[in-house]
Amino acid sequence: MTAIRAATLADMPACARIVHDWERASGYIHDTPDVATLTGHLTTAFPARDIHVVGDPVAGYLSVDPAEDKIGALYLTRPGQGTGKRLMDLAKTSRDRLWLTVYVPNTRAQTFYRREGFVETARLDADRDGAPQMLRMDWTRAEGTS
């Protein structure tokens, strides 16, 4: 089983590459920033986020904004191997609620999030020109569970 560890600033280019490659392969995101720009965004956000990576080299990551209990990113180069579940369990640790946004066409992610207890709470406008609509999904810890 591949270890999960806290990210370092040195991991941000690898995380940016994963986002870039995923967006390019999606078929519905047409204005993907280059890896350097994405690395800059991730580096700027790094101090305020709980970010964990998996693999060496990095094969996935999870970013949570602890101030908002928002999952900002969950990207994997090889989904379907249980790594997303392990990262999600980590995000749920010591939290009673989480929320995230997901692109409407990303039905695979929606299925995963629903399996993890997230429910759709809103449909949001696209955040950039040409990007598809997004869903907001929320998770709340069931009473009596830890």
From TrEMBL:
GO terms for molecular function: acyltransferase activity, transferring groups other than amino-acyl groups. It comes from the Bacteria. It comes from Sagittula stellata (strain ATCC 700073 / DSM 11524 / E-37). InterPro entries: Acyl_CoA_acyltransferase (IPR016181), GNAT_dom (IPR000182). The keyword Nucleotide-binding does not apply. The keyword Transferase applies. This is GCN5-related N-acetyltransferase. Keywords: Transferase. Residues 2-142 form the N-acetyltransferase domain.
